[in-house]
Design a protein that fits this description.
FHA_dom, 10 helices, alpha+beta, Angiogenic factor with G patch and FHA domains 1like [Bombus impatiens], G_patch_dom, Tumour Suppressor Smad4, OCRE, 19% strand, nucleic acid binding
């Protein structure tokens, strides 16, 4: 967050922070600035505000700052040196054989021969690399950089062996291949028989599921795979331009997108329609039934029941039990006792010898059981007890004073 606030962007492939104001990369591990074009390290002097060039870095620090790009460059240099050495050995052998046969050989060469030798394969530090920038995509981050160097690379959707990984559904697992022609000094793109095809400068390279011929990749060539559009930038060695620097294209402050409830519901319906279309349920009986349940008229089952069966009067008074009036046949208890053999007017019990009258309501003293003769306190008794308590307290106060 601190580097982002200073206007710096983190580049995942190199592991460095890019400052698009100065054009340098910052290595947080050793606290130094790195110039990608010259390959030199600098130290920032806050007093003078100038980046000062550093001398040789310790071997340990060099190991830490060594990136994948530098490893590829060293490997490319070794391959180029071996190739040049083989060419020199071949020329020496041909010259020796010619001298042995007695042919005349001049030590000087014509200007045309010299120019042809000079126009041979470029030196290792001038071999170009392909920088693929994501210009438009629904699955990849716009402004992302993919680097393809000597001897080439591959494009695919899955697998750690690919140099360019595109999560686009229109990209096959092994979609295309980029190769480098050492004689011509050019990069070529070849479709490896993908299903959805590859477009180079708005032209399809081959039909579906068939390999294409190698096509030359020029500077600012447009490559389209599925819904992802890439632009190729070809520069010698570590040189770049404003159109292939991630720090200039990536947004420094990315705001998170918050969706409202309506947007989430619209997205859910969209995904549901896509799933129905995918599995052939669009327009089927299942979808028709769902639409009737969700979007059809509401069926009031209670209203239908009231019309057919009827309902109780909501304004009717609730019947209250009384000691003066016996229960009639509408009472549930009466019906239950009748089913067990009891008849109206008989007593309770096995022999119908029990009481037939309801238990009278009696007011008892607190915690007193049935049959207790304890007197129930009345309001008059409570008032009398309160007066007696007041008289007693008054008498106690009088006795203390006397």
């Amino acid at each position: 967050m601190m580097f982002r606030a200073l206007g710096m962007v983190y580049e995942e492939r190199s592991g460095l922070y890019y400052d698009y104001k100065s054009g340098y990369y910052y290595d947080a591990k050793i606290g130094m600035w790195y110039d990608g074009s010259s390959g030199k390290y600098f130290h920032y002097d806050p007093d003078s505000g100038v980046h000062k060039e550093m001398g040789n870095i310790k071997p340990e620090e060099k190991k830490k700052t060594e990136t994948k790009r530098e490893k590829r460059r060293r490997k490319r240099d070794k391959i180029e040196k071996k190739r040049l050495k083989r060419m020199v050995d071949t020329d020496d052998n041909e010259g020796t054989e010619g001298a042995e046969d007695g042919e005349c050989s001049s030590s000087t060469s014509s200007p045309s021969d010299t120019s042809e030798d000079e126009q041979g394969p470029p030196p290792a530090d001038k071999i170009p690399c392909v920088r693929l920038m994501v210009y438009e995509s629904e699955d990849s981050k716009i402004g992302s950089l993919f680097l393809v160097t000597l001897p080439g690379g591959s494009i695919g959707r899955e697998g750690a062996e690919h140099d360019v990984l595109l999560p686009d559904p229109g990209c096959s697992k092994f979609h295309a291949k980029i190769t480098y022609d050492e004689k011509k000094g050019q990069y070529f793109l070849k479709d490896m028989g993908s299903r959805n095809g590859t477009w180079l400068n708005n032209k399809r390279m081959s039909v579906s599921k068939s390999e294409s011929e190698p096509h030359e990749i020029l500077h600012r060539s447009k490559i389209q795979i599925g819904k992802t559009i890439l632009f190729a930038h070809i520069h010698p060695h570590l040189e770049t331009c404003g159109g292939c620097e991630p720090g200039l294209l990536l947004k420094s402050d990315e705001t998170e997108k918050f969706s409202s409830a309506a947007e989430k519901e619209a997205g859910r319906k969209k995904k549901m329609n896509e799933l129905k279309k995918k599995y052939g349920l669009k327009g089927s009986d299942m979808e028709t039934n769902e639409s009737n349940v969700s979007g059809g008229a509401y069926v009031d089952r209670a209203e239908e029941r009231r019309k057919k069966v009827g309902s109780d009067n909501p304004y009717e008074k609730t019947e209250v039990a009384s000691l003066e009036k016996s229960l009639d046949s509408r009472n549930k208890g009466f019906n239950m006792m009748s089913k067990m053999g009891w008849k109206e007017g008989e007593g309770l019990g096995k022999d119908s010898a029990g009481r037939s009258e309801p238990v009278p309501i009696e007011e008892r003293k607190v915690r007193a059981g049935l049959g207790s003769d304890a007197q129930v306190p009345t309001l008059d008794m409570k008032a009398q007890a309160k007066k007696s308590e007041v008289w007693k307290k008054t008498q106690e106060r009088y006795n203390k004073l006397s």
